Amino acid sequence: MLNSASELEFSDENNAREISQFASVEVSGDAVSTVRSSTGVPEKTGYPDSVYVLAANIFQGIRIEKSSDKILIKYGNEPLPSLPESEDETLQRLAYELAFSTLKYQDILETMLIDSYIFPSTKIPDHLSSLIIVMLYDFQDRKFQTRVLPDNEESILEVQEVENLLNSFKTKLAAALARCRIKHDALSIYHILPEIVRKQELRASTLPLYAWINTCKISPEEVFINLKKKGYNEVKSVWHIDDKVFAVDQHCYDVLIFPSHLKKDLINIDIFKDHKLIFQDKSRSLAVHSVKSLINLDDDVLMVNTGSWYTVAHMSVLTSNNTSKIFVCGINSQDKNPDLNNLFTKMGCKNIEILPETFTDIDPKDQRLQKVKVILLLPRCSDLGVSNPIEFILNEHEDTDLLKDLSQGGTSEDKLQVLAQQQYEQLAHAMKFVKAQAVVYCTCSVYPEENEAVVKKALEFQNQGAKIQPYRLSPPVLPLCSLKEIHLSKDKFFRMEQSETTNGCFLSILTRERDPSETVSVKDVLARAAAKGLLDGIELGKSSKREKKRRKSKTSLPKASINDNNGIQEKIAEFLNREAKASTSTSEALMTKTLLPQKPAAQVGASSQIRKPSKPPTNPLAPTLTKNACHGRPCERHTNFTRPRPEDKMVALKPIEIVLPPVMLPFPSPQGIRSQVPTQHFYYRWVRPKTGVPGYLPTPSVFRKVEKPKENLPSSQLRRPRPWL
């Protein structure tokens, strides 16, 4: 029990009057919770007892420890017993918010307890100090009004005792708070905070919500339909919009953006309850999408220090259509999540394997990781690029030390050096995996010591073996959506500055050339796919016709080489005979031309174009030429027709123009003819070899007439000469 050493008596009337005077000049430190109803009663009425206990235990682990000469209040080391219902996510979020707010005002709240004589005038056990200071923050945030308790709430004895103590000292506590505010010349204790902390709170209040679509359970189109049924409209940007809207992220096609004030409404929608939409910081989605762009269908991924299992699930969802396996290490989440397998089953994730070892203890030549081609490294860092640390801790399972750093506006130099060394060791170890081809390094830090400096140091001191290709810095694989992003990524690092719309993010991609000895043939890829059942019964044992023909040509190559000499000699003799015959035929044709009877003009034109025939003509209209050309060589004709032509021999071709007759359609009027008959005729050309047989060709005069037809002539003048009749 709490016993007061000097009990002070106040009448209820005096207490009410003095409290109202202090409250009239006091503004709550929480920018979000200062909203009052129209009746003047504060909207906040307090938390359940279990939230106070959970918040006290959180504060016990993140409080700022002071030197022995500056200690005002002693805190115990024993946590308070909590109720089973404290595991509820909503209660945990409330407890973290209360603990973080108490941490920011720790100095002011301790001063109030000393100035009001609660310490050391009362005998308070040390293990209750955290509970007292947490409840004091909420007490002043409620303007020192009595907490309203629900009828069905289960009370906790320690909480009831502390609340009675604070109520008995509420006048002195209000006076101590007013003196502190006057001392710092501030309208409220919120303005006593450092400027960097106030800016952080302002960004946290406006930061939009990011959620990725679990495509293993629902398609994006179905998500849009569900949201529109709930009254949400799709827009291009959600900034400064108070309506129920959403937008698709520019960098990640499966990420949706919502205004921050819709969180309470969204968590009650079925698609969020059923793990079809998952809230998560955008930086984690950027990391997994970068990995997705670097892997093939059958490449495995190794994820290190992912923090949240939602990041692992997102990577699994993006590779659900592949044969990839997701290995996870560096997380001691087995104790925190006993129902982890059940969670993955609900989300539809089937290709995840958890490694029990820490990352630096894994052998780079481990046989389990021989197919790992990309390593995603999300090292523990200062995370000062995070605007809303509560959501980040709950979703990413980050260390609560983040709250301590953010409450002070920065990370100490000693801690920063320790973190940077740990990050370098992990990145250097990732670069030792022989089979890996890329490493994705992602942080939420704003310090170059944790970002560029770590990457450059790892590249500089990497082990370059004789058979291992060195890593090099590669440009971002994510789309750059603005000139600012292009400017920030000019040195091949992807950066997103901390703003009112996004948390800060740093992303680097290290790649190296594939080992030439690891080149995989198409046959090996097909065989591997068939072994995994991806070819749906396609048989690979039967060779294609092209492969059989190629093998046959390869096996018959020695036989062909045996008769090479004979074949070459025959070709030479045949060529000489053909040349002699061509010269003889030319001379005889010139002599015979004057003795032949007069031929039609078309035949004359055709005969004049035949100069060195490679074989006797078969045209019955020129019997004399055929007879003279074949005299004394009865077998030459047969030999020329059966001789195969070599593949690589160039055959001279001569263009021949053929005029096709115009189409005459029976239309009743000239208008119908003009509308149907084209004004221009098309000439089709064909190319015949030099050894072709001459045929009947149109005369040049006819060709010229058809080449320039007259237009707009009457139907009687559309007739053309028809030499084919």
Explain how this protein is built:
This protein is of the alpha/beta class. Helices cover 42% and strands 10% of the residues. It has 28 helices and 17 strands. Strands 8, 9, 10, 11, 12, 13, 14 and 15 form an eight-stranded mixed beta sheet that branches. A five-stranded mixed beta sheet has the order 4-5-6-3-7. The chain has a two-stranded antiparallel sheet with strand order 1-2. Strand 5 (245-248) and strand 6 form a beta hairpin. Helix 2 crosses helix 3 (89-104) and helix 23 (564-593) packs across helix 25 (623-630).
Task: Write a short abstract of this structure.
This protein has 725 residues and is α/β, with parallel strands linked by helices. The strands form 4 sheets. Strands 8, 9, 10, 11, 12, 13, 14 and 15 form an 8-stranded mixed beta sheet that branches.
Write the layout of secondary structure elements.
Blueprint: E1 3-4, H1 12-25, H2 49-62, H3 89-104, H4 106-115, H5 118-121, E2 122-123, H6 129-141, H7 157-168, H8 170-183, H9 195-206, E3 209-213, H10 220-229, E4 233-234, E5 245-248, E6 255-258, H11 263-266, H12 270-273, E7 277-279, H13 282-292, E8 300-304, H14 309-318, E9 326-329, H15 340-347, E10 352-354, E11 372-377, H16 389-396, H17 401-408, H18 413-430, E12 438-443, H19 452-460, E13 472-474, H20 483-488, E14 494-496, E15 505-511, H21 522-531, H22 545-562, H23 564-593, H24 601-609, H25 623-630, H26 636-642, E16 653-658, H27 670-676, E17 684-689, H28 700-707
